TrEMBL record:
Pfam families: ABC_tran. Gene3D superfamilies: P-loop containing nucleotide triphosphate hydrolases. This is ABC-2 type transport system ATP-binding protein. InterPro entries: AAA+_ATPase, ABC_transporter-like_ATP-bd, ABC_transporter-like_CS, ABC_transporter_ATP-binding, P-loop_NTPase. It comes from Spinactinospora alkalitolerans. It comes from the Bacteria. GO terms for biological process: response to antibiotic.
Amino acid sequence: MSSTAPAVHAENLRKRYGDKVAVDDVNLRVDTGTVLGVLGTNGAGKTTTVEMIAGLRTPDRGRVSVLGLDPRRDRAKVRQVLGVQLQQAYLHHALTVAELIALYRSFYPAPRPTEELLELVDLAEQRGIRFEKLSGGQQQRLSIALALAGRPRVVILDELTTGLDPRARRRMWQAIERLRDEDVTVLLVSHAMEEVERLCDRVALIDAGRVIALDTPSGLISRAGAEDLDGAFVALTGKELEDAE
């Protein structure tokens, strides 16, 4: 991990929708090569936070830096170094898996090879299938492949394994571990505690738009006096795990 400038730095982020404050003075620093888990119940502000980091939403207040770049002012440069996979995929339904990968690879000067991307997300057998014919889990995996097509140095993954079967979930975990080995920085929004405990170097707990705890998984467990991350989540947020799903 880098001891110099962080790969991602969010300072005093705030976002309001009407009378509701979705994100309230969030600060995050993510060092290079770190996998940061972002945990919170539905409506806690975690997706809005990462969307502001990605430049998809404009904060009402605060600043974001991704590898020293402003996601909105330096949008073209950021697109070359940041990969984003969100919960909802808006892709051309008539294109095949291989055609979508070819399209996204064309956006970058030195993309990952098609076969590597297909293998990474276990979609080699579906290469000729149109997006609209894929299962929900297969569409999710394709979205991840597209987020990784340009060899990004920072990746945002929102609910990485939602809707995936156990085999596909394990493959996605292996893909994240491979990214860490490549010194890629990952922001992983999740409510799957086993996933976070296995993959994440540090975890940010977000509740009511604020970061209420930021530590290693073991540090959170110790701080809460819990037996596992499930118990730590309940102790620190006062909410049951099912409230996050």
